Every structure is written in C-alpha cells, then in structure tokens.
C-alpha cells in the first residue's frame, strides 16, 4: 500500500511539498519478473501511486528480501527490508496514562446564541459562527486495547479549531470529579488501574485498591456514586452528556469576568446499558461504542450535542453550602439554568486511527482571548499535567505541529528547533525585540496588546486572600456527603436499585473485609437506607459505625435533571432494531418493520442463522447483516423474531436463537414476536408483558426502541 504523509488539507502549519499522494504515479503497469520458482511475485495496478522508501527511492519488489541465493541467508545490504522493519519496530508510542482507550470523530460547532456580554472570544460574537471540531471520547482506567463497556467514567474532550487558536474543552460525562486537589491524582489513578503486583483487573474499579482509596478519601464519594449509577455504563457515546466540570471564566471586551460551567446535552437524549448487558457486551463486541459511533456517522446519522453554560453569580455562590471552586460539587440546573449557546455535529470519521486518535493532544490550557481559568485547585494542576504528558507520549515539544493538533489559524512565534521540527522559518529573527524589519529583513511577529490573550486581574473575585502561602484546603470544601445524598435522592427507583446493585457487585470483588466495612461506614454518612441495602447484599450482618465526618450531610433539594429516566428523550431516533428472520418469515411484515425504523431515524439489522440470509414468504432471499451466532440481541435496543414454519423448526432447536430471545427479555427490551417467536421466548423462559408485541406491529415495536420494560426487572434481578 502506498504510504502518504499528506497533511490535513486545511492545515496551514503542515509542511509544503509533502503531499505524497500520487506525486509519483506510475505511468505503466508494473512489469514484474517472475521469481525463480516461476510464481507471480506482485500484483499489478497501474492506477496506484509508485511504492517508494521513506526517502523516495522507487521500490521494485515489496514481497521478497534480498538473499544470497534463493535458499541462502538475507543480506544486511537490503535497505528496503531494513527500513520497513525498522519503521515497524517503532510504530507504537506510549499509551495515555489515563483515558488510553478512546474513539474519535470530526465535526463542526455552530454558535446558536452570541454572548458578547460574557466573552470577547471571536467565536461567540455572532450567531451562526462556525468552526471545525475534533472529539475524543474515552474510558479512563483501561489500556488502549481494552473493552468499550466497563463501568467507568467517560472522557469527553473537544478541540475547537477557531480563528483565534485552539480551544480544548477537556471534560468528562459526569459533572464532578473524584478529588479536589491535583496533588491526589496520581494516587487516585494508581488505585484504580490494575493492581501493581498482579497486573489485573484490567479496566475495572471492582478491586481492593480502588475501594481502599475511596474508603479513606470521602471526597471521592460523589463521583463514585455517579460511576456506580447508570451513567457509568452508557449505551452509546452518542447518548452521553458531557461536562467541563470545573468553574471557568469568560471575560468580555470591558474586562468583566463571569464564572461559568460548561455542559454538553445530547440531542438524542441520555441512555444507558444495564449492568448484565454491559458485562456480556465485553465479550460480544469489544468495540461496541467505537463501532456504534463509526457506523452512525457512516450512515449519515450525525450525532449532535448542544453546548450550554451555567453563568454563576458570585454573590449567589457565596450563599451555597459548597464552593464553586470545588470540582466534587455540581451546580443544580434547577438553581442555575443551563443556557444553550451552540451545537456540535459529528459528521466525519477519522481517516487514520494513529494519526488522529493516538496523536491528538488535548490541553485544558488551550483557551481563547475572552476566556480564563478559575482557581479550582484541580484545574490548576491540570494546566501543567497535559502539556507535560504530551512530551512523554508524543516525544517532542513540537507536538503542536502534528496535523490533528495544529491550529487552523496563523501561528507565529520565536520558539525554534527541537526534535521533529517540521517548519522551516525564514530569516534570522529568532528573538524579540529586534529591529530587523527596519533594515528590510523579516522581523517576525509581535505581541498584540489589544486582541491578545490576557489573564484576569481580579484573582480574588471569590474572596480569596492571596497573601497567605498555605498547604490547606478551604473550609468551604469540607462537606463530602450532602451532594452524593442529593444525587441518590434525585434518581428514579430503577436507577437507585442499580446503584445499590453496582455497589454490591463491586464490593463483593473486594477481598479485604475491613475495606468493605470502611466503605459501608462512609455510605452511612450519605444515606443509611442505601448502606443497609448494600450491607444486606453483601451478607454483612452488622452495619459498621458511620465514619467520622468533618461535616454531616444536609438535605439539599433533589435535582430531577440528574436522573436519566426522569428526563430522557424516549424517541426511537438513533436506536437500533434487530430482526431475527427465519425461513418463511412474512415478507410484508419484515419490510414494514424496516420502513418504520428508517422513518423514525433508527437503524435496522437483519439477523439469520446463515449470513447468506433467509428465504421469505414471497420466495425472495433476504441477505443477513449478521449471523445469529455472532450477533446476540445484546447489541440492539429492541428485537423482532419472525419466521415461517420452515425456519421455526431450525430456530427452536438452536441455542443461539433461544439465547437471543432470553437475553432480550432479561435486558428488558421490547420483543416483536410472530407465533413461532413467542414459542421460542416461552422455551427460553421469557414471559409476556406490554413490551412483547406482535411482529406485525411495526409502529409499536419501533416506538419502544428507546425504552425498557423496567417492571420486568423486579422479578428478574430483585435489588438488595
Ligand atoms: Fe485528565 N489527564 N487529569 N481529567 N483527562 C489526561 O492527558 C489529569 C481530569 C481528561 O482524549 C492526561 O493527554 C490530572 C478531570 C480527559 O486525549 C493527563 C488531573 C477531567 C482526558 C491527565 C486530571 C479530566 C484526560 C493523560 C487532576 C475532566 C483524555 C493523557 C488534576 C474535567 C484526553 C493526556 C484525550 C487525560 C491529567 C483530572 C479529563 C495525564 C493531573 C477533572 C477527557 O495529562
């Protein structure tokens, strides 16, 4: 395959003259001599570019190394072989210490509401302003090759390529974080990653060291409750909220600052897996989320999020029982509404996983004129860490020149040289001030006192005393229990049951009894009833005493916005219907289902026992998109089973078909069933409810794509 180092077309920072695609097309067909054994050595293709070494030498044979005789040793002289293997040996770079596993997409961001009163950032001066974006969604704990659906927080990092430079909003899918101070980050990460001596578990928080840390650091509990909730197992990256978490600042043209928090609201609504499903998906499809995002974009079903801000009045903030600089606290939307200011549409898949996903470098320090940071001690630490880690991961201070990281606006300064420098600056002006322009030479760029980035001067706007030099946490950061309590009390019943179930699951994997007890002691400070249920699930006969608390929990009003089920968008759009088709299935019913799904903006996949497809009632053969044994009902939001007599006999004796029905039932999905399908479900031990419909009721089935039969769960998996 021809190698090209073509930079992104729109990237002005990329070196000219490196456009390798078809720069050396072959005019004639490869005329390849046959080897001594008489076999054809190489395919010919006269439309392809000519294969060369990295230095441009045309290659005549990319299949055979240079040998001393056909059966002799390989020669060191073989520059083609040496270069090929040398490059291959160094293909991998260190993976990210956290967020190693990620999926990416390109898109655009369009401003829906200008906010010049809040910021002088050029992007937000006019409704309709648009810029390119690049997004990376990630899990936190697992390695780059780990699975997509563990219980974990998800990263939600967005790079905006604006006319004033790159703005990176590097957030997560929860509005809060585990710790309050950057000083604790290495400890947190060490505790959750696989344990140091045994090298497991991979991509899982259900082990001793994580829960040990949690039990000793009550500030983690709020984010832990979110991770144990359905937010920790999203159904799709497309159905996730995103949050900038920290309080940031916007600065307007008059220099007036406002405190803000950022929110991404998915247009498709929020939706999660259920735990059993997420665990089984890890076997069924490692790449469940990556594939889902890729396929949706390929199909033109572009996921969209609205960007919102909460603008926080410092006087209001001073009256709250928490500190807005504390990243373990959220600001309820009911109290400070989220104003929508723009929409992000993801409309292009990456061209190359390494060049874009592995090499993208997000920096929370990438902000625009008209933006600034707050003194959140977690954010302050991040401002150092990301720049620092890129040097270790990407190997050079020039990582900003890599096409995916390069700004799409002019970039000039006097920083020079370094490893992998790709720019060739002209002239001798590599210092400032200089007067070379006066002598007719290139003088280089100059600072823009008016339009350039300026830090805010009112650093004590929230009442800090900057004259003290201390290693102390503010008293206003001391309440670790009220917000997790508020979170639990904002959930619907099934959601709260899931948190209890998740805590029981995770703590059952903790082998040291004292750690289980210490977590229970912390839980009692959040909610005694939940603590009792978890203790019951663990078979613990006596609840330990509550842990000593610096501040006791107070009852904050519940925030319904925190519940997924209380405000989900129950629309079939973007969801996936699976139709298991047996021979003799009603052709009209299948067509109706496909049409109905498409009309509703959902996708639809045909499954049959053989990939060649099934023969329908009208004699036609419907090719399958998935073979039954490799396409479990796990990957769908709702399923239909439809077959004629011929297919029924084969399906009813096929364990994969029985499991297809049984798992759809157990995962609370809607099932559209023909009479044979109903017998299949009966044999697989399912039952009947308003989510088991007739296979001809296409409207009914599709309408239930975004929903689950929560009533089934009580019988199937009663919560402790
Ligand atoms: Fe990160 N984090 N983080 N983090 N983080 C990284 O940077 C760090 C934190 C987040 O897709 C690293 O480029 C510290 C909060 C995302 O490439 C590293 C602290 C939030 C990503 C790093 C935090 C995040 C990272 C590893 C505590 C949500 C993936 C690789 C002060 C607001 C970015 C890299 C991507 C990645 C450090 C806490 C989100 C080591 C020190 C809070 C989405 O620099």
Automatic annotation (TrEMBL):
<dbReference type="GO" id="GO:0006979">
    <property type="term" value="P:response to oxidative stress"/>
</dbReference>
<keyword id="KW-0479">Metal-binding</keyword>
<keyword id="KW-0560">Oxidoreductase</keyword>
<dbReference type="InterPro" id="IPR018028">
    <property type="entry name" value="Catalase"/>
</dbReference>
<feature type="active site">
    <location>
        <position position="172"/>
    </location>
</feature>
<dbReference type="InterPro" id="IPR043156">
    <property type="entry name" value="Catalase_clade2_helical"/>
</dbReference>
<keyword id="KW-0349">Heme</keyword>
<dbReference type="InterPro" id="IPR002226">
    <property type="entry name" value="Catalase_haem_BS"/>
</dbReference>
<dbReference type="GO" id="GO:0005829">
    <property type="term" value="C:cytosol"/>
</dbReference>
<feature type="active site">
    <location>
        <position position="99"/>
    </location>
</feature>
<feature type="binding site">
    <location>
        <position position="185"/>
    </location>
    <ligand>
        <name>heme</name>
    </ligand>
</feature>
<feature type="binding site">
    <location>
        <position position="136"/>
    </location>
    <ligand>
        <name>heme</name>
    </ligand>
</feature>
<dbReference type="GO" id="GO:0042744">
    <property type="term" value="P:hydrogen peroxide catabolic process"/>
</dbReference>
<dbReference type="InterPro" id="IPR010582">
    <property type="entry name" value="Catalase_immune_responsive"/>
</dbReference>
<dbReference type="GO" id="GO:0046872">
    <property type="term" value="F:metal ion binding"/>
</dbReference>
<feature type="domain" description="Catalase core">
    <location>
        <begin position="52"/>
        <end position="440"/>
    </location>
</feature>
<dbReference type="GO" id="GO:0004096">
    <property type="term" value="F:catalase activity"/>
</dbReference>
<keyword id="KW-0575">Peroxidase</keyword>
<dbReference type="GO" id="GO:0020037">
    <property type="term" value="F:heme binding"/>
</dbReference>
<protein>
    <recommendedName>
        <fullName>Catalase</fullName>
        <ecNumber>1.11.1.6</ecNumber>
    </recommendedName>
</protein>
<feature type="binding site">
    <location>
        <position position="382"/>
    </location>
    <ligand>
        <name>heme</name>
    </ligand>
</feature>
<feature type="region of interest" description="Disordered">
    <location>
        <begin position="440"/>
        <end position="466"/>
    </location>
</feature>
<feature type="binding site">
    <location>
        <position position="96"/>
    </location>
    <ligand>
        <name>heme</name>
    </ligand>
</feature>
<dbReference type="InterPro" id="IPR024712">
    <property type="entry name" value="Catalase_clade2"/>
</dbReference>
<keyword id="KW-0408">Iron</keyword>
<dbReference type="InterPro" id="IPR020835">
    <property type="entry name" value="Catalase_sf"/>
</dbReference>
<dbReference type="Pfam" id="PF06628">
    <property type="entry name" value="Catalase-rel"/>
</dbReference>
<comment type="similarity">
    <text>Belongs to the catalase family. HPII subfamily.</text>
</comment>
<dbReference type="InterPro" id="IPR029062">
    <property type="entry name" value="Class_I_gatase-like"/>
</dbReference>
<feature type="binding site" description="axial binding residue">
    <location>
        <position position="386"/>
    </location>
    <ligand>
        <name>heme</name>
    </ligand>
</feature>
<comment type="function">
    <text>Decomposes hydrogen peroxide into water and oxygen; serves to protect cells from the toxic effects of hydrogen peroxide.</text>
</comment>
<feature type="region of interest" description="Disordered">
    <location>
        <begin position="1"/>
        <end position="40"/>
    </location>
</feature>
<dbReference type="InterPro" id="IPR011614">
    <property type="entry name" value="Catalase_core"/>
</dbReference>
<keyword id="KW-0376">Hydrogen peroxide</keyword>
<feature type="binding site">
    <location>
        <position position="393"/>
    </location>
    <ligand>
        <name>heme</name>
    </ligand>
</feature>
<feature type="compositionally biased region" description="Polar residues">
    <location>
        <begin position="20"/>
        <end position="40"/>
    </location>
</feature>
<dbReference type="InterPro" id="IPR041399">
    <property type="entry name" value="Catalase_large_C"/>
</dbReference>
<dbReference type="Pfam" id="PF18011">
    <property type="entry name" value="Catalase_C"/>
</dbReference>
<dbReference type="Pfam" id="PF00199">
    <property type="entry name" value="Catalase"/>
</dbReference>
<feature type="compositionally biased region" description="Polar residues">
    <location>
        <begin position="1"/>
        <end position="13"/>
    </location>
</feature>
């Amino acid at each position: 395959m021809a190698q090209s180092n073509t930079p992104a077309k729109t990237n002005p920072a990329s070196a000219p003259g490196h456009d390798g695609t078809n720069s050396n097309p072959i005019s004639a067909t490869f005329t390849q001599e046959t080897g001594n054994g008489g076999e054809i050595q190489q395919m010919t293709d006269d439309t392809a570019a000519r294969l060369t070494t990295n230095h441009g030498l045309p290659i005549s044979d990319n299949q055979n190394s240079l040998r001393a005789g056909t059966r002799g040793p390989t020669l060191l002289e073989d520059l083609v072989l040496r270069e090929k293997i040398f490059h291959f040996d160094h293909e991998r770079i260190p993976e990210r210490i956290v967020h190693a596993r990620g999926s990416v997409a390109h898109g655009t961001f369009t401003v829906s509401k200008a906010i010049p009163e809040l910021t002088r950032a050029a992007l937000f001066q006019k409704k309709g302003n648009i810029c390119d974006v690049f997004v990376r969604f990630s899990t936190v704990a697992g390695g780059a090759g780990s699975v997509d659906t563990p219980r974990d927080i998800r990263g939600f990092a967005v790079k905006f390529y604006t006319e004033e430079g790159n703005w990176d909003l590097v957030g997560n899918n929860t509005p809060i974080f585990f710790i309050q101070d950057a000083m604790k980050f290495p400890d947190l990460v060490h505790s959750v990653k696989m344990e140091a001596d045994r090298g497991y578990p991979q991509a899982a928080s259900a082990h001793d060291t994580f829960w040990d840390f949690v039990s000793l650091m009550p500030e983690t509990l709020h984010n832990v409750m979110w991770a144990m909730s359905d937010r920790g197992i999203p159904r799709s990256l497309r159905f996730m909220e995103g949050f900038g978490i920290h309080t940031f600042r916007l600065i307007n043209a008059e220099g007036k600052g406002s405190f803000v928090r950022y929110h991404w609201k998915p247009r498709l609504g929020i939706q999660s897996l259920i735990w059993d499903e997420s665990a089984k998906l890890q076997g069924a499809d490692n790449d469940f989320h990556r594939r889902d995002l890729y396929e949706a974009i390929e199909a033109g079903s572009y996921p969209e999020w609205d960007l919102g801000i909460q603008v926080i009045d410092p006087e209001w903030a001073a009256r709250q029982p928490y500190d807005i600089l504390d990243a373990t606290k959220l600001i309820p939307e009911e109290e400070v509404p989220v104003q929508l200011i723009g929409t992000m549409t993801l409309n292009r898949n990456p061209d190359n996983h390494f060049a874009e996903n592995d090499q993208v470098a997000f920096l929370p320090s990438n902000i625009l004129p008209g933006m600034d940071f707050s003194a959140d001690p977690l954010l302050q630490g991040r401002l150092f860490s990301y720049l620092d880690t890129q040097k270790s991961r990407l190997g050079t201070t020039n990582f900003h020149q890599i096409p995916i990281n390069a700004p799409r606006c002019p970039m000039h300064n006097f920083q020079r040289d370094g490893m992998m420098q790709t720019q060739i600056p002209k002239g001798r002006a590599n210092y400032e001030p200089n007067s070379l322009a006066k002598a007719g030479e290139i003088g280089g760029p100059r600072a823009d006192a008016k339009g350039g980035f300026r830090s805010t001067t009112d650093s004590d706007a929230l009442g800090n005393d900057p004259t003290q030099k201390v290693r102390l946490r503010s008293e206003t950061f001391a309440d670790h229990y009220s917000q997790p309590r508020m979170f639990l009390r904002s959930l619907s019943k099934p959601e709260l049951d899931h948190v209890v179930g998740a805590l029981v699951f995770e703590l059952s994997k903790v082998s040291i009894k004292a750690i289980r007890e210490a977590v229970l002691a912390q839980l009692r400070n959040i909610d005694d009833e939940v603590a009792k249920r978890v203790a019951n699930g663990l078979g613990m006969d006596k609840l330990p005493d509550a842990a000593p608390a610096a501040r006791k929990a107070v009852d904050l009003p519940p925030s319904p916005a925190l519940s997924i089920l209380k405000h989900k968008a129950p629309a079939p759009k973007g969801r996936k219907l699976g139709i298991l088709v047996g021979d003799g299935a009603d052709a009209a019913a299948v067509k109706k289902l496909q049409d109905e799904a498409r009309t509703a903006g959902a996708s639809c996949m045909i499954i049959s026992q053989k990939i060649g497809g099934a023969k329908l009632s009208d004699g036609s053969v419907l090719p399958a998109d998935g073979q039954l044994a490799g396409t479990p009902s796990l990957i769908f939001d709702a399923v239909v089973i439809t077959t004629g007599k011929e297919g029924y006999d084969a399906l009813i004796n096929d364990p994969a078909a029985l499991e297809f029905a049984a798992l759809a039932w157990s995962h609370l999905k809607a099932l559209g069933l023909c009479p044979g399908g109903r017998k299949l479900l009966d044999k697989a031990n399912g039952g009947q409810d308003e989510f088991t419909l007739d296979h001809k009721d296409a409207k009914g089935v599709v309408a239930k794509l975004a929903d689950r039969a929560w009533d089934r769960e009580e019988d199937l998996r009663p919560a402790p």
